Amino acid sequence: MSELRFRQIHLDFHTGGSIDKVGGKFSKSQFQEMLKKGKVNSVTVFAKCWHGWAYFPSTTCEIHPNLQLDLLGAQIEAAQEIGVKTPVYIGITMNEVLAKKHPEWIRRKPDESMYGTPNFTKPGFFSMCLNSPYLDVILSQVREVLSNYDADGLFLDGTDIVPCYCQTCVSTLRSEGKDPQDKKAVQALAERVFFNYANKVKEVVDQIRPSSQGSLPIFHNAGHVPKGRRDIIFTNSHLELESLPTGGWGYDHFPFSVRYVQQLGLNYLGMTGKFHTSWGEFGGFKHPNALRYEVCLNLANGAACSIGDQLHPEGIMDNATYEMIGKAYSEVEQKENWCKNVTSISDVALLSLESLDLKGDDIESHEICPSDAGALRILMEGQFLFDVVDFESDFNVYKVIVLPDYLKINEELKRKLEDYVHQGGKILATGLSGLNSRGEAFAIDFGAEFICENPYNPDYFKPNFQIKDLGEASFVMYSKGQKIKLTTGIELGYREDPYFNRDVNHFCSHKHSPSTQNNAGPGMVQGKSGVYISWNVFEDYALTGSLILRRMVSYGLDLLLGNKKTLTADLPSKAIATVMHQETERRIITHLLYASPIKRGNGIEVIDDIVPILNTEIRLNVNYPILNVYLAPQNKTLPFSFEEESGVSVSVPEINCHQMIVFEY
User: What is the CA radius of gyration of the chain?
Assistant: First the structure.
């Protein structure tokens, strides 16, 4: 397994051919000074960028026409001289230079238009097909870089699986007797092309750097780690979770990705950026508190850290950038000993719709579908300890499995869930989840019988339990609901119908008609296998954010977890809690974080202020005899008490962005 350094920089260098004096002001001493100022111990440097230019004396790539020196070699020498590792970046599918020389190698859409930049009159990049002779060019570039430079790894960028309709791909399909208009056949070819590329890269690497010399870290970057595609994931030696919150990924994306990969057995890092927005931005800076929070969020999830920067074309490192990075990485440096070789402790598993290919065709690859996003937010805001899982995950290590909104049960999944429940596990399902694959009946015993989709939308929920922060009421449900009938279960709340659905002949007030206050059947039930909520509450929470939705799910999860809940914390909803086990050191580390992103500009989420949280009460309930509790990295001992049922209780004096509480056993 590749060991990752905790304080990395991804040093972008996509430099247009019309830029003059490229690398002309590079200085070894200035480069080293900035790396030291930033507390950096690994920097990813560029061999070839998306423009297609090489930054070394290459015989396999077009050298940047205005390159002043062997910039790649100079950076590697400077960094390694001060003990900083140097993985090397090679752009894979994006190549402006060769696209213009070989337009027949460009990936095409069904109408033969191009991916990325629409045509040659627009500025931008072109995506090249790896089913064309372009693959041989890429392999020669990988071979050349590894033969001539002491690279500490390979970061191979732009390796996503894209359905391609170029003439090479069309000819391949036709030669196999397949229809190029068959989307499944085109997708299957795209996957074969990717795996052929990945396998051939590995062959080249093994020829030049045999495993007897130590495995060379390789990462194929597509901007998103696909859930449920372990075959793709394990083409990598480790994972780099590209997730710039202000760059289009948002603050949901990294937690969603990291809580999936932390169960896979690979080392991983989280990659954010120093930019106000995203890659390619010169002179943009996020607030230092945002960068501090983002690297601490990595640590809290067992991830090493990488911060994206972009080198000036003349090779000058920006002083203000590395002052800011140094403040964040100074904190990481103090904390990383408690964050190495850890495994997550989780009570709940979220079986992702993406992992079962139920995400929806209209959702971009790096976007989270609303049901997954809503479930993620409710679980985080409720401070539940959870992983995001796929069908291959071991369900039996979790106390509750969450099935969000649209997850109907086929026979294979039914057998796995039945075994899980037989072993003592519980299920929380919502909406259509829990129904059989035909949507006719429950495949799981919730003590209820499925009738049909409720024709009223919206309708109302009247809980039979006290809702925290809210009084007794009928709460509007905006999402589609299902009509069910109670059999052997316990009714936790019931539905109420509105007077009518809103249409041109029937409407009341500005939005929807009020409840008739009738009991229209169960809306939330508990049965032998777990709890069922009859609305798409997770999708609804992602779209409307209504508090009642979170309270319903939290009540159901608390009911199912009972006294088996590992962590209980009195925290604001935007706080994040994780628990990591560092078995080699015989200690459990609870991470508590708090910052509150705000919207600024056109939908950009930013973090400015860090407001300390004082005197937080937490309880940790684990099967280890706790001997000592202290704050890290302060090494300040905390008094604690122990009760047989609820575990160890402790008061945390202050959470200033991020606080680790260490429980030694």
Answer: 27
